[in-house]
Amino acid sequence: MSGKGKQASEQTLARRIALLDRLPVGHSPAAGRTVGELTDYLNASGFDCGRRTVERDLEAIDAVGSVWRGIGVDLQQGMDEDDARVPRWSHTPNSKALLFRTLSNEDALLLSLVEQELKFFMPASAYESLMQYLKVSNRVLSMHANQPQAQFRERVRVIADGPALRPPELNMPHLQEINEALLHGEQLDLAYRTARSSGETAYRLHPVGLVKQGLFFYLLAVKEENVHKRAPGPVQTFRIDRVRRVARRRQEPVARGLPSLEAALGNGQLQFFDKGKIALRLRFADNADGQALCDSYRETPMAADQRIVKRGDGTYELQATVMYSLQLVRMLQAEAHRSYVVEPKALKDEIAGFVRQAARLHLVS
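The line above is the sequence of WYL domain-containing protein; the predicted structure tokens follow.
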């Protein structure tokens, strides 16, 4: 190829890449770009071209068997809403090309795992971008040579602690709307129904963060009526599966001085009904079950200052500063046959009352 021919080919390639980058992802075909708009853009970007050149570029890219289709480009046309004679061009949903970056099998596996585990923490805009890459990722993993990676994807899972309960149904648009509000620092309007209520309660919220704990996703936020003070708060939790409607308050930023998500979690927000910090003293049963529980706490401490000391009678005692919360109470209730609370007295009495009530129920039945 002559120098002039090579230069022309490179110019054509650069122009078509710029054209593709300008095209939006069209969930509605009518939301695309017209040839006139694309021509104006390309000329403003330094490409000297006319409408017919742009038309030929689009036809070449969209042709069956073109190299562009081979790397994932899939264009669509829709007619302009005001003038049905004017076509608009866009990428089809989930198909905006990776252009000249070819995914390796490891890249494809990574994207697939990210989609499985992190899709709930993505704004709609970010998830849409991920889906554009995921289409190519799935194609790569479907190749026979990449069978090990495809099989690995089916052999790993994150599962919730405890019994194999079925998590509640999640409304993905609700999650995505909440994530969009977090991304843009905007307020939310929420319609919420608790487990014991048949009606809905409307809230105007200032989101702090989104958290997954066990089977559930929680929005942490401050209510509108609680932000007009020197230190906005408290942070409250809203389970996502109980949300009935949610909408961003576009262009309405959250209040200044909101607690950070880290601060809210550090204050025990998701431990529920927090009664403050206590100096816990917990003793273990003098048997194999008690020793196994003691060993478990050595491997997974309850707090940074946890100590496990051996007593004069050969038994063991755990000492730690922890949050007195519903989660702590439920954990100690589940372990009441292997350990018992020495201090504080309020917690000891609560667990003892639970044990007596459980004994009466099971012995009577």
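Note on the example: The chain is about 40% helix and 20% strand. The mean pLDDT is 86.
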